[in-house]
UniProtKB/TrEMBL annotation:
Keyword flag Ubl conjugation: no
Source organism superkingdom: Eukaryota
Native source species: Galendromus occidentalis
Source species taxonomy: Eukaryota, Metazoa, Ecdysozoa, Arthropoda, Chelicerata
Quaternary data: Forms pentamers. Component of the PI(3,5)P2 regulatory complex/PAS complex, at least composed of PIKFYVE, FIG4 and VAC14. VAC14 nucleates the assembly of the complex and serves as a scaffold by pentamerizing into a star-shaped structure, which can bind a single copy each of PIKFYVE and FIG4 and coordinates their activities. Interacts with NOS1.
Recorded name of the encoding gene: LOC100905768
Protein name, entry field: Protein VAC14 homolog
Function: Scaffold protein component of the PI(3,5)P2 regulatory complex which regulates both the synthesis and turnover of phosphatidylinositol 3,5-bisphosphate (PtdIns(3,5)P2). Pentamerizes into a star-shaped structure and nucleates the assembly of the complex. The pentamer binds a single copy each of PIKFYVE and FIG4 and coordinates both PIKfyve kinase activity and FIG4 phosphatase activity, being required to maintain normal levels of phosphatidylinositol 3-phosphate (PtdIns(3)P) and phosphatidylinositol 5-phosphate (PtdIns(5)P).
Length: 690
């Protein structure tokens, strides 16, 4: 006995389960006709009963053909219901949604088609079921069967149109679903989500910016998928344009952490896009991003261009210049530069009102101070200098952590880095200290000498460069006085001699020391006299250096007395080389004043005798001929009438040269004793050798 399916006719019920599609289709047309008749008589109970039968007995049947027939029948009812469709949605949508998970892909396709027809008729009336429909569409987007995906895509487009028409769409519930799925690893699922995000953002009545912080990380994860980069990039670009138009509605702080994270991505397009967003954020947001300075620096410092573009600094060495391989890399560097400059401007604009904790910023700067890129290291130094100039009180709390690291940078292989580091150290050393504050100038001088002592190659290779640049940033008198005091206490006589030689060469040959040379030529004040005495006491470690100091300060009588003491000093080949260099210095522009004084030999007999003393020290070499030629140009005079006594007229009230001479003799004695001990030690080792 056949089951009763009233109001479906027995023939219609049999046809709905037929394996032939045309027969099932014919049955659906009969259902359409019956539905129309019931509606004409306003008789809805039979319609509900019919939908119940189509849903439970057919759409949920174990027989796949019956399920297909049931779906066709439900679709036929929906088509005829038209504007009354929302009254019957629960009876229609529930079984259809169940069929969207059917193992038979043909049933799933029919379910997509049926739901499409229902939604097309119901329009906004189907929105209460949006969550279930969206969930089903998300699954179908990853279906392996192309026909199913095609059907789902048509339904997906229809749902987007309906949402765009409805002012009552539940955006909060939608975003909850989106957040749950945004981190999926499936390319198809990601494409589905990006499509919905893009569609929602394009709807004028929906403000997606409010929810953007919740999905931005997921969008950047999707951007890393090569198959979706174009669509995802377009969606992100659209969001960014909206942000530019409505910066007041944007939660910059909430999204910046995400941008910082992805700006360090190994995927070039992700890194570039994150930096482009960050560039706009620091431009539009103002001071609100200052508390995130440490993170922003972490993002931009490693990506700065290879040529920093500071016209005041020398260009990097060719070995340090790496060309950008692509337009993207050039754009990354451009963005990083702009972000870095803008953040510096924000600190400038806010001054002491800078309300961020400097601790994390300093930690980041310390981390990147030994970065492989020269330009990154230079940017770090610029930041430290900038913070110190703009926020000296806040930076004072971090000086103990920063200062030692800056001293280590003096060993950097790049000259431009060392130059900028010297400027930073000099700026920190200028501040006058109180009893409660450290004297960073003195600490700087102490550490610099320690650095030279422990790294003699650095002293030879870059010592002159460092000291010359320091004399640009700081008063040369202070530098030489401080080093003189420290070197006077130095126990390593060999190092002292080397340092004196370096300092003396700089003093007598460089334009940066013009003011100091002027001071030493005119000992007309107590500070200048004290400076001369300080240098003299140390210059004694290098006999020819102290002679040149006396020549520079025009104490020619004492220079003669010193030269007489050279008879007691061991004259080595190195010593003669230094005499040769001193002769060359006498011929240099620095000593033009001295050569002009030779025009009046009667007033400067001690000068003439000092030069003859140098001549007598030299073997007959090129330097000997050069000095002899100079002395032959002196007008005729009688040198034998003046003895080595007294001081020049300018020495009245000047240094006590008797005391200074005893200091010179004492130091030379110490050097002799040191050399004697060295020779004995060397001999004992030879005797003990097997």
């Amino acid at each position: 006995m056949e089951r009763e399916y009233t109001p479906l006719s027995p023939h219609c019920a049999r046809a709905l389960s037929d394996k032939i599609y045309e027969r099932r289709k014919a049955a659906s047309l009969e259902i359409e006709k019956s539905t129309k008749e019931f509606l004409t008589r306003n008789n809805t109970p039979p319609i509900r009963k019919m939908l119940k039968i189509l849903g439970q007995d057919f759409a949920l049947s174990p027989n796949s053909n019956s399920r297909k027939g049931g779906l066709l029948g439900i679709s036929a009812v929906a088509i005829q219901l038209k504007h009354r469709c929302p009254e019957f949605l629960d009876e229609m949508i529930t079984p259809v949604l169940a069929c969207l998970s059917d193992p038979d892909h043909r049933v799933k396709y029919h379910a997509c088609e049926s739901l499409y027809n229902i939604v097309k008729v119901a329009r906004g009336g189907c929105l209460p079921y949006f969550t279930h429909i969206f969930d089903a569409l998300a699954r179908l987007a990853t279906d392996q069967e192309g026909s199913v995906r095609s059907g789902a895509e048509a339904l997906d487009r229809l749902m987007k149109d309906i949402v765009s028409e409805s002012p009552a769409f539940d955006l909060v519930s939608f975003m909850t679903m989106l957040r749950e799925r945004i981190m999926t690893q499936s390319t198809a699922a990601r494409q589905f989500l990006v499509g919905w995000i893009s569609a929602m953002n394009s709807m004028p009545d929906i403000d997606m910016l409010v929810f953007l912080p919740e999905i931005l990380h997921g969008l950047f994860e999707i951007l890393a998928d090569p198959a979706l980069q174009r669509n995802c990039q377009s969606t992100l670009d659209s969001f960014l344009e909206t942000i530019k138009k409505n910066p007041q509605s944007t939660s910059f702080v909430d999204m910046t952490a995400t941008l910082i994270d992805h700006s360090q991505s190994s995927v070039e397009v992700v890194q570039l896009t994150a930096l482009q967003w960050l560039e706009q954020f620091v431009t539009l947001s103002g001071r609100s991003l200052l508390p995130l300075t440490s993170g922003i620096l972490t993002a931009v410092l490693p990506t700065l261009p290879n040529r920093y573009g500071n016209p005041c600094l020398p260009l990097p060495r060719s070995s340090d210049t790496v060309s950008c391989d692509s337009e993207s890399q050039r754009e990354i560097s451009r963005c990083a530069t702009n972000i870095n400059e803008r953040m510096l401007e924000l600190v400038t604009a806010e001054g002491e009102d800078f309300d961020a904790d400097l601790g994390p910023v300093i930690s980041v700067l310390r981390e990147f101070l030994d970065h492989d890129s020269t330009q990154t290291r230079m940017a770090v130094l610029r930041w430290i200098l900038h913070l110190y100039c703009k926020l000296p009180a806040k930076m004072q709390n971090h000086m103990d952590a920063v200062f030692p690291i800056l001293l280590n940078v003096l060993s950097d292989e790049a000259d431009e880095v060392v130059l900028l580091d010297l400027e930073v150290l000099s700026e920190m050393s200028k501040k006058e200290t109180t009893n409660d504050e450290k004297d960073y100038f003195q600490q700087f001088m102490n550490s610099l000498l320690d650095l030279f002592r422990n790294d003699q190659k650095l002293l030879e290779r870059r010592g002159s460069f460092i000291i010359r640049q320091l004399c640009v940033f700081l008063p040369p008198e202070d530098i030489y006085r401080s080093m003189g005091i420290l070197l006077e206490k130095e126990e390593d006589l060999r190092f002292s001699e080397h340092m004196v030689k370096t300092l003396n060469t700089i003093l007598l040959t460089t334009s940066e020391l013009f003011s100091l040379r002027t001071s030493l030529k005119q000992l007309d004040t107590e500070p200048r006299k004290e400076l001369f005495v300080c240098l003299y006491r140390v210059w004694c470690h290098h006999p020819l250096a102290v002679v040149s100091l006396c020549l520079l300060s025009q104490h020619y009588t004492h220079a003669c007395e010193l030269l007489q003491r050279f008879a007691e000093i061991e004259v080595t080949s190195d010593f003669l080389v230094e005499v040769d260099k001193l002769v060359q210095l006498v011929e240099s522009p620095i000593f033009t004043f001295l050569r002009l004084q030779l025009l009046e030999p009667e007033k400067n007999q001690d000068l003439v005798k000092a030069l003859y003393g140098l001549l007598m020290l030299l073997p007959q070499s090129e330097a000997f001929l050069l000095l002899r030629t100079r002395l032959m140009c002196i007008p005729n005079q009688n040198l034998t009438s003046r003895s080595f006594k007294g001081e020049p007229p300018s020495s009245e009230g000047g240094p006590d040269f008797k005391e200074l001479l005893s200091i010179f003799e004492g130091i030379q004695q110490r050097k002799k004793e040191r050399e004697s001990r060295r020779q004995k030690h060397k001999l004992s080792h030879k005797l003990l050798a097997p």
